[in-house]
Amino acid sequence: MTHFRKLAAAAAGVAAALASSGAFAAGFQLNEQSIVGMGRSYAGEGIMGDDVSAAWYNPAGLTLLPGTQIQVGGMDVELDLEYKGKDGGSENGRKRSSPILHQMMSRQFSDRLWGGLAFVMPYGLSTSYGADWAQNQRGYDARLLAVTINPSLAWKLTDKVSVGAGFQAQHIDATVSMKKNVMGYGAYSRLEADDWGFGWNVGAMWEPTETLRFGFGYRSQMNHNAHGHVKLTADSASQSGIQNLMKAASANSAIMSQLKALAAQNGISSSALMSIASSGSMTLPGGANMKSPANANFTVVWKYSPKLRLSSTIRWTDWSSFDRLIITAGNLPHSSTDIPMKWRDTWFVSLGYDLDITPKWTIRGGVAYDRSPIKDARYRTAIIPDANRGWLSLGASYRLNDRWQFDLAAMHVHAFGNRDLYSDYTSSGEKVGHFKSLNSYLLGAGFVYRF
Question: What range does the record give for the signal peptide (predicted)?
């Protein structure tokens, strides 16, 4: 009986550790919903009027877009997550290339009313380390995909003031793999879960002069209650021990009955119990509860000259709302699956420019600073090895004619400051290594078509 309780505790430990990995963490937020915006590090997002990204960043900016316009774009993300352990081991969490896609549409209904529709991927994650690397107990493989549908309306109240509002429906799909050793049992775990969440967004834009424009946007918090399953696979040594336990139980019907009763109390069916004994794996119903943080942005665009525009964005994100993450695995003890995250609110600041070098060509560039939500390095995980980040970007647009516009952009994001990794988030956790580099390289292309 004691051995099976250890097995149940191991399953709970695996699920709990998944929570600390930040599998659903909006901390790995994606700003890349516009190729044009990417070229200037998203300075002035939503109120520039040179693409359809207002449908996502600030619905009030839709009033800058005449007629009907469609925007399609995508970018490829390459990661360099070089880790060096104190034991001399090394790893790199880069995975296969990760595309980020978006599609948006705007429609002018009258001189005062506009509509917008955005299909975007606002959160994403794709990291992978060797399954047997030294820190696999804090995660070695993860994938997160969030797709959001955001319809909106905008009203031009006066020639200087516009407002907008929208509704957002977001689907998240996440997978996380890790290894955990609990009370002598080693197990590989894989969590798969998904959910729909709903929220809203609003925006406003003010143009006091013909050369100056201000914008404000707010996106609400969304609550996710993801459902799925946790597949627990014992390593070879643990599987052998479990099989010996089951053999002993099969020789004593009373012990077998007690094992099955204990399994049922923990949400483990008899078939799952038999499965881990025979194949070394079992599947439990699982899920997670978390909050997707609210954010607000303030933007400004200044037309310095007929050919040069300067812009800036300041964005606040309510990461402190992501204080805890609760993971469930069957009916295993709740106390083992309530994990503190201890994140903080963050600020993002960017500066950019757009320069028309010919009637058909525009070039742009930008820089940005993005503060990490991780205020205590003990809460950093290899799956989301976040740190303060600096951005540098360049881009260009080519207008073939009045209908077609083609856009290109490239960006480098470099993390700096504390990049240490600890064995766990408790006060007894020891520093086990650090990330020598945390870099992202992005290259994107897209087009805008105007009817």
Answer: 1-25
User: Measuring CA to CA, how many Å separate 378 from each of 93, 246, 265, 298, 418?
Assistant: 19, 39, 34, 32, 11
Contacts (Cβ under 8 Å, ≥6 apart) of 427: none
293 CB-near residues (< 8 Å, 6+ apart): 26, 221, 317, 318, 319, 321, 322
Digits of tens for pLDDT over the chain (451 positions)? 444 444 333 333 333 333 333 333 335 667 778 999 999 999 999 999 999 999 999 999 999 999 999 999 998 888 777 777 777 777 766 665 667 889 999 999 999 999 999 999 887 666 777 666 666 666 667 777 788 999 999 999 999 999 999 999 998 887 777 776 544 567 777 778 888 989 999 999 999 999 999 999 999 998 888 888 877 777 776 667 667 767 777 777 776 777 677 666 655 666 766 776 677 777 778 777 777 789 999 999 999 999 999 999 999 998 888 776 666 666 554 444 456 667 888 999 999 999 999 999 999 999 999 988 888 877 777 667 778 889 999 999 999 999 999 999 999 998 888 877 776 777 677 887 777 778 888 999 999 999 9
CA distance 249 to 239: 15
Strand partners, 186: 181
Instruction: Show the domains of the chain with their CATH numbers.
Output: 2-450 (2.40.160.60)
293 alpha-carbon distance from chain centroid: 11
Handedness of CA 35, 39, 42, 43 (dihedral sign): negative
DSSP H helical segments within 63-121, as ranges?
none
Radius of gyration of the chain (CA): 25
Beta-strand ranges (E) seen in 210-294 are 212-219, 222-234, 281-292
Judge whether 57 and 45 are in contact, CB under 8 Å.
Answer: yes
In whole angstroms, give the CA distance from residue 248 to residue 258: 13
Pull the structure tokens for residue 448.
């805008």
